[in-house]
Amino acid sequence: MNLAFLLPAGLAALAAVLLPLLIHLARRSEQRPTVFAALQWLRQKPKPRHRIRFDEWPLLLVRLALLVLLALLLARPVLFGAASDAPWVAVAPGVDVAQAKDDDAPANARWHWLAPGFPALDHASAVIPAKAGTHAVMPSGSISSLLRELDASLPPGVALTVVVPEQLDNVDAQIPSLSRRIDWRVVRGAVQGARPSSAPAPLPTPSVRYAPQREASLRYLRAANTAFSTPGAKPAPQDIAPATQALLPASRHLIWLVPGPVPQYVVDWVRAGGTVLLDAEATLADLPPSVPLWRDTDGTPLVEGAAFGHGRLMRLTKPLAPQDMPVLLDGDFPRRLRALFEPLPPAPARVLAAAHAPTTGAAAFPPMPRELQAWLLAMIVLLFAIERWMATGPRRGVAP
Fold it and tell me: N or C terminus: which one in the chain shows less Cβ crowding within 10 Å?
């Protein structure tokens, strides 16, 4: 084990140990000499030489030790090499504890959950009761992130074994690369106890606001209404109204078929998180650089779009009419129109554990030192109490 100081300049405070020495020298005796007249005729003897003497030296030592500890606290001492080298076994949620301990493991292994905070395996307060017939599970973050965090927190020489179920949830798209080789054990038949995700909410039907000269285009939007409804169910009614009518409070998607400048309230609505598809002749002063989102069979862009504040802004490149956009008559038009308003699908987060074994090659992290501030504070409080007791207690006497 090696002792180091994170702030060596704090050791300059050791100069303060001179203060108790000076105070004790200045106040080493509280007696005052008294001159008697009858003694002035006695023969004067040579005065003895003065020697430096410290009175109440136990109290002085306590005060010196207190100042030394305060200086060490300012220097922030840490201890390297104090961590245990006992092997680690991390068990992922979903694995039966008894089944995990059936595998061969070192007798001095430390068992922990592969969960935030890495609680001990017998930490019952973090276990979530599962349904009948399933294993109790624990709340877990990203398995990949937890593996990297555990690899960084353990000393380089500690052996690591990870017990995982047959399927893993909450993983990154990339196999984690660690600084050490780990023993990756897959328990057959175990499934990670992730909470079942709720069914995605149906995509709401976009609102439509139009100008009188664009009324002929509404027939194609009404025909595409089935693309925004559940298959086999009755199509949901569309919010179609002239441009003079305000948007509904629940509106999240908008088709704006109005030539000319876009009103400021629509611009603010998009910035706040809405998604709008503008008319080909709509204008906007601060239109952001756009990229093609929909092309026809010849590769000509039909819709361009970009992020705009917290929302998305899209614009048609041609009028919504069959002579300009023959794709309106295609059977694929409703699906392509719906795709413009659909959010990006989430990345897959479930893999087979056997195919997600971590690799090696990452840079090793420096060992984490052990902080000593808590111990120093406890010793300072104890010494301060002793110093006060010795300085004010009834046993304190005055040196002759």
Answer: C
Q: Please give the pLDDT value at position 302.
A: 93
pLDDT-above-90 percentage for the chain: 19
- 229-254 pLDDT, tens digit each: 666 666 667 889 999 998 988 888 99
The residue length of the chain stands at 400
Q: Which residue, 96, 164, 90, is CA-closest to 133?
A: 96
